[in-house]
Amino acid sequence: MTKIYEIGPFRLDSEAGVLSQAGIPVALGSRAVAVLTTLVERGNEFVQKGAIMDAAWPGVVVEESNLAVQISAIRRVLAQAPGGERWIETLARRGYRFVGPVIELLGDRQGSWGDKHTNLSEPLTSFIGRERELVEIKRLLPSTRLLTLVGIGGIGKTRLALQVAAEVMDAYRDGVWLVEFGSIRDPLLVPTSVAQVLGVHEKSGTPLTDTLCVHLKARQLLLVLDNCEHLPDACATLADAILGAAPESTIIATSREPLHVAGEQIYPLQSLSLPEPSTDAEAVGRSEAVQLFVERARR
């Protein structure tokens, strides 16, 4: 069971960390959603800034200005609802209170970790940095059929793709599915790998790609194709076929190079931010790269 809150026209899934409207994820970063969740769960109660930051940035030291930025982002989203701009009250120098309309729903959530609508595993590490990228990609997805995260090896393409997939899971009726190509070198195994993940069986006399397309034709799902650079032509051919056959499905690909498929949205991924050489210790601690290093070193 998971807690889901209806907030006016919005729905907040506290477990998935997703705020949606009319079934579409709202472009709101994971930190902002964590802040909103903390306030909603303690509705009509002033929550100290320290408690909010502990919930949204567990184990990370941040300045109050970071919290103020997230509150502003939340208010901009809530302002889409009548009176929504007044749903978060500020208690000067102390904290915030959520006073908007909230209905708590309890129920099983399709697409939750471990159920039949996804093969994603629950992440073993926290997601640090990439807040801007996360928001931008979630904003792009509703109008993009194929979004390719492009960057050098080890830069974090897979982790970002999985975080996006987890946060938008509720928007896809037939689930979110990860297909990994990192260990594959035979292009004929590209459609086979996708078929295995989706539970599609090969039919005698019919190309497997055609069988996949028939299976996906009426489905609405998100496919994450990881490490496409090993077999770019085969991945591009399959992606093009799926997009042509399944108008309600979306693909996120990770690759060191674009797939060069019609309609592809390329999203270049850069390195995490580093502190300037002359910055003080507090500013160094706010660097995404430093936060990631510290978090991993604690494990």
Keywords:
299 residues; single chain; 35% helix; 2 domains; elongated; 13 strands; disordered C terminus; Rossmann fold; Arc Repressor Mutant, subunit A; 10 helices; alpha/beta; five-stranded parallel sheet; five-stranded antiparallel sheet; 19% strand
Explain briefly what this protein structure is.
This protein has helices at 30-41, 49-56, 64-78, 131-140, 157-167, 189-198, 208-216, 232-245, 281-286, 288-297; strands at residues 2-7, 10-13, 18-21, 24-25, 47-48, 88-91, 95-98, 103-107, 146-150, 176-180, 222-226, 250-255, 264-268.
List the helices and strands and how they pair.
Elements: E1 2-7, E2 10-13, E3 18-21, E4 24-25, H1 30-41, E5 47-48, H2 49-56, H3 64-78, E6 88-91, E7 95-98, E8 103-107, H4 131-140, E9 146-150, H5 157-167, E10 176-180, H6 189-198, H7 208-216, E11 222-226, H8 232-245, E12 250-255, E13 264-268, H9 281-286, H10 288-297
Q: Estimate the global geometry from the Cα principal axes.
A: elongated
Q: Rg to the nearest angstrom?
A: 21 Å
Strand count: 13
The side-by-side strand order for the widest beta sheet comes to: 4-3-2-1-8
What CATH calls the topology of the largest domain is: Rossmann fold
Number of helices: 10
What is the residue-mean pLDDT, rounded to a whole number? 85
Tally of distinct domains: 2
**Helical percent range?**
25-40%
Biggest sheet character: 5 strands, antiparallel
CATH C-level class of the largest domain is Alpha Beta
**Proper CATH architecture of the largest domain:** 3-Layer(aba) Sandwich
Query: What's the N-to-C terminus distance?
Result: 29 Å
CATH superfamily of the largest domain, please? P-loop containing nucleotide triphosphate hydrolases
Structural class, from helix and strand content?
Answer: alpha/beta
The stretches of 5 or more residues where confidence is low (pLDDT under 50) are 107-116, 288-298
The helix-strand sequence is EEEEHEHHEEEHEHEHHEHEEHH
The amount of beta strand, in percent, is: 15-25%
